[in-house]
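Re: Re: token formats

Sure, here are both.
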Amino acid sequence: MSDYLSSFRLEETVYYLNARGRKEVGSSVARRRTIHVPHTLMRNEVFIRYRPDYWRPEFPIKWADKCVIPDAVFRMNGNYVFLECDHTQSMAQNERKIASYRELRDTGIFQRKYGAFPLIMYVTVSEYRLKLLRALLDGLHAEVLRINDLR
């Protein structure tokens, strides 16, 4: 397999197709190590854990002249979920995004179209960040988990 795969180590080993591997499977998409890999892996952990029947990564939610882009929108037990993966985001950025979710909820647009406002699920890396996010999400239908709780 090493003829077709390359890898690098984060908390775990990440494998990806090298040029020979891409040629073997007919793929032209080159994947490389970037600063976004830990964030993408965190999002993938959620997908693997819940195996939703509907999954759209980085799906823009637009209303009026505003837009919020969850890390993923998915459906779990028939209900929509807005996923946010908090790996290195500043709390100020999280606060702005949560304010956008409040604003969207308060318009009622999503509820009129889909019946209920989605659960906002934040996945984060530490107990400290979990507590801060729970405080910011107070009053919203939200859940905050540590990535280790999903494994």
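Second one below.
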Amino acid sequence: MLSKQQILKIVSEKLPDFEPESSLQSLEGGNLNHVWRLKGSSRNLILKMAPPYIAANPEVPLDPKRIQFESKALQLFGNRELLNPLASREIRPPKHVFYDNKQHLLATEDLGHLPDISRLSNTEISPQQAGRRLGSFIGNIHRLSYNDLDLKKQFTNTSIQKTRREVQYNAAAEYAQRGGGTELKAIQSETQKLGKDLLESGCCLIMGDLWPSSILIDNDKLRIIDWEFSHFGRPLQDVGHFAAHCWMLAHTSSEANRKKMFRELWQYFWESYQEGTESNFSHLYDNQEYRDTTTHIGAEILIRAAGSFKNGYVYDGYDKGHPMVKEAVEQAASLIRADNLSDLWQADFK
């Protein structure tokens, strides 16, 4: 791993006019990478360096080249690039500053200290506004990139998909067992099949990691960060990922109005997503995509409620016998067998 002095040297080489006004400040919340803020006289930077493992789980290896996919994804929103029309005041990713391919170091604009979408009730934006903007944004990315052969060559992020297969899909039945689940053979069969299928190239560019920590709120605006999982894949890994986290946020909320808020957030997202994909929706979402979306939702709930990514999230602190964990595992198992997104909200847990 580079020292802070070595990182500052790279910054000075890439940005000779940049004048640091602070030392590197480590930021919390980065699961995949080491992240720092560097204050400057005219602007601040966010620096991300990818180690050859998941930063929050060093025992899980991960290709450090993943950060180049974030660099390429952010540049797609630049001037005269394919996704530039989608970047607006209301919603956009951070601006790309530079990328050092040798050291796997990415610099982006500093968006500041912003709450993520799990804090939606304390911000100026409503569930309807947030859901519709985000759904339209993701839907349009899928639509504009649909069957784009050039993007397919650029964004074949196979190493990430292999890691997801091993850590999320192949291990789903084990996580269910930890949480007191049953029907383990059915869970194993469905999730392992999905993990294998997702190693194949898909049909559109996906953001890949659409969970609360990637969706920041700046007053009435949304900012989408952490694009390392971007991949020419299948819509389910964006749609299903966001759906799973809306459900988990609702499930673990003690207040009825917050449960309602996260359910509405999902509903507005899904409506706007379909509108954003326009005539390509039927190509992006056939019956198999619906079935695989619910399987992904179940797998994501399992890894968060009883698996490798439980710590630091909404089920942290609950032991495996706690009713909240049991309910989440039951819901995950039900969704893995489902074929309709409406099944996401069938269970009314108290």
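The domain at 1-110 is CATH 3.30.200.20 (Phosphorylase Kinase; domain 1). The chain has a mean pLDDT of 95.
- S.
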